[in-house]
Amino acid sequence: MAVKRRAETMEENRSKLVAAARKAFAEKGFAAASMDELTASVGLTRGALYHNFGDKQGLLAAVVAQLDGEMAQRARERAADILSPWDRLLAEGIAYIEMALDAEVQRIVLLDGPAFLGDPSRWPSQNACLQATREAVSEMVRDGIMNPVDVEAAARLLNGAALNAALWVAASEDPQATLPKVIDAFTQLASGLRAR
């Protein structure tokens, strides 16, 4: 019983720290967020942070993974009612790019994430997105919806295009003005893979 309670407490502490970090990183940015303030805001110590995440960067990785997972889920939900596999794939990519306008996503995932965690294509959460794209591309190539193409190459290029488009929107001086240009180019680029 004590072991179960300890595991529950550890999970509660992890959840508290991720929620507090998400708020702090969104408001202040990763570099300016104080770990002492963050841990105190949820009644924990720095020791709890280090025990659960190793360091501040480990905490950022957990927050990015949570947010990136939510982004993928929101993109899937937005495209769920679309019957055409091709249109669904495009809608998911566009939905992902549009999330670059969300202040929390923009700050944490698209600006601070790459700056402090490195290449987003190497993040575990991006690998999950890549796998979903790989499966969709494989089915569309098999069904003749996409041109015969190397599935891995096409999946990586589509994922990379959506990710880089979102990064560009987030970093641009005028994200609202950049977004339509990016979506148009992404759609045209992806459409080159579609069978005629």
From TrEMBL:
The keyword Hydrolase does not apply. Pfam families: TetR_C_41, TetR_N. Keywords: DNA-binding. InterPro entries: Homeodomain-like_sf, HTH-type_TetR-like_transc_reg, HTH_TetR, Rv0078-like_C. Residues 34-53 bind DNA. Residues 11-71 form the HTH tetR-type domain. The keyword DNA-binding applies. GO terms for molecular function: DNA-binding transcription factor activity; transcription cis-regulatory region binding. PANTHER family: HTH-TYPE TRANSCRIPTIONAL REGULATOR RUTR, HTH-TYPE TRANSCRIPTIONAL REGULATOR UIDR. This is Transcriptional regulator, TetR family. It comes from Kosakonia oryzendophytica.
